[in-house]
Amino acid sequence: MSLADQSVSPSARPLVKLSNIRKSFGSVEVLKGVDMAVQEGQVVAMIGRSGSGKSTLLRSINGLERIDDGVIEVDGECVDPSQIDLRALRLKVGMVFQQFNLFPHLTAGENVMLALKVVKKQDKAACRAAAEAALSKVGLGHKFDAYPSQLSGGQQQRVAIARSLAMAPKVLLCDEITSALDPELVNEVLSVVRQLAEEGMTLLLVTHEMRFAREVCDSLVFMHGGRIIEQGPPAELFDRPQTPELAQFVGMVEAR
Amino acid sequence: MYNFTLWDILSNLLLAARWTVLLSVIAFVCGGIAGILVLLARVAPLRPLRTAMKLYIELFQGTPLLMQLFIVFFALPLTGIETSPWTAAAVALTLFTSAYLAEIWRGCVEAVPRGQWEASASLALSYGEQMRYVVLPQALRIAVPPTVGFSVQVVKGTAVTSIIGFVEVTKAGTMITNATFQPFLVYGLVGLIYFVLCYPLSLSAKALERKLNVAR
Description:
The complex is a heterodimer.
Chain A: H1 3-8, E1 16-25, E2 28-38, E3 43-47, H2 54-60, E4 69-74, E5 77-79, H3 87-92, E6 93-96, H4 108-118, H5 124-137, H6 153-165, E7 171-175, H7 183-198, E8 202-206, H8 210-216, E9 219-224, E10 227-232, H9 234-239, H10 244-255
Parallel strand pairs in A: 3-8, 3-9, 6-7, 7-8
Antiparallel strand pairs in A: 1-2, 1-4, 4-5, 9-10
Helix pairs in contact in A: 4-5, 4-6, 5-6, 6-7
Chain B: H1 6-42, H2 47-61, H3 65-78, H4 85-111, H5 114-122, H6 127-157, H7 169-180, H8 183-215
Helix pairs in contact in B: 1-2, 1-4, 1-6, 1-7, 1-8, 2-4, 3-4, 4-6, 5-6, 6-8, 7-8
């Protein structure tokens, strides 16, 4: 399913819906009224140059950036600029970061269990079982007791994915999750993401891995200057860009 | 005239040194507890609270300990609160210590990378939970060496309380000098006692620093 299909079947209620999102840092307006909808099970990649606002947009979806205007809706949870308590929203939105951000004082297993214990108040056995399952899913069941400093970058990022997944989010946000990795470690992380996509997880990615975006995503969103200026199926965007900005971006990416 | 032996002098100094140690411990423990509260308010997501604590810290960092001691000792009785040299010394040193420790620890909390806050926030932890489970445990590791290092300042700071008549080791030294007319010997011993108290603290601060650096 792609964004193009949405207009044909307006009855389907999007899982994530952004309406007129605006955000400024000081006098610089980085998001200039962004509208976007993501259906359940869709895999959407946001592409664009650095500074185009794609990371800010992604981070606003779980309230890490406070928006100045507009409404974000995720599975019935609304966020607008006035909202302070984001707990309900964050229970539905997981996030994986470029720099992994594992808790260095906790083992891989403890990293995964922390929020299960503290936020979801699950008992010890349930936490442990869920953490083991999540780590196995990313192929790291045997690293339960390893500290982040004992893991490679790729392994750390997979633990971070497991940590988010264990909370059973409705949608997973991935903010350039392979950008801090050595080239030979990128694939192990991407194959986990690919597996999640195949299992029907709703994914929103900011990525520079164009080949991956093309192969895995249902839909691409091209951002430029704080706006979405093109969106649609990857093949269409890459092969027939409608705007000179996207044509230039595609040319730049493919020249690499 | 009575002749003071070296043991007479030293034993009296050591007796007084008990009060130096006790006052240091009280100032450090009470100051530490108060310091945690000041710290939490200093980094709280509430601007008025943060500003108030910033003023509190700057007040104690920006005035001499001696002034703080005078104010507690002479001004509190004016408000009707009886103050003995003991209480005045303990209160003033506690306040002084809390301000410095809060500021040291604030640096440690802020040294925890932003990504740790963001990752824990995105896991739906509340501010208090983020602090308790993610930020403070990491800040604590960074905080141990400078905290132990600061305890040396507290021990030496107790010397100032001699001025309001609290008989700790420095005051005892002055009194013994007045009786023996041997200032060089007496103050030399006083200095030695401070050194014996402080040097192990400095050493352990250094050792902890090394150990924690290796662990990372």
